[in-house]
Specification:
single chain, alpha/beta, six-stranded mixed β-sheet, 8 strands
């Protein structure tokens, strides 16, 4: 997964813009290279601990990436006070049947001033594996 520096910075900036609640969005591109980040509103009932993409924001992003000829690379969200590793809730809510190739980016703000971004995906046996991020 190649993530141009400006998109890495965008994901981190989005997380840092709302440090007390989880932020979320989508990443789109071509051939494993990110070309666009879509911020979405978090409509979870407890956004400090969970995320849920706003349905309209999600559909607008999907419409735009289809019009632009981009592929959905994956989704992102932040963790306000925990490590950049998927929670049980996140794993339970992921749907590899619908988005089998999606990468899930998590930006942790657990250490103030030192954000950490990691990425994960499900392999063919539906095991969670870390996806290397090459910031270019």
């Amino acid at each position: 997964m190649k993530l141009p520096r400006r998109f890495y910075d965008e994901l981190v900036a989005h997380a840092e813009s709302e440090p007390e609640q989880e932020v979320c969005g989508l990443v789109a591109g071509k051939d494993g290279v990110a070309e666009r980040v879509y911020r979405t509103r978090n409509v979870a009932k407890t956004p400090a601990k969970l995320f849920q993409l706003h349905p309209k924001d999600f559909m607008d992003a999907l419409d735009d990436l289809e019009t632009s000829g981009l592929d959905l690379i994956g989704f992102y969200h932040s963790h306000t006070h925990s490590s950049p590793y998927p929670s049980r809730t996140a794993v339970r809510d992921w749907n590899p049947e619908v988005y089998p190739d999606a990468i899930y980016f998590i930006c942790s703000l657990a250490e103030p001033g030192r954000p950490v971004l990691r990425a994960f995906r499900f392999d063919r046996d539906v095991h969670l594996v870390e996806e290397p991020i090459d910031v270019v």
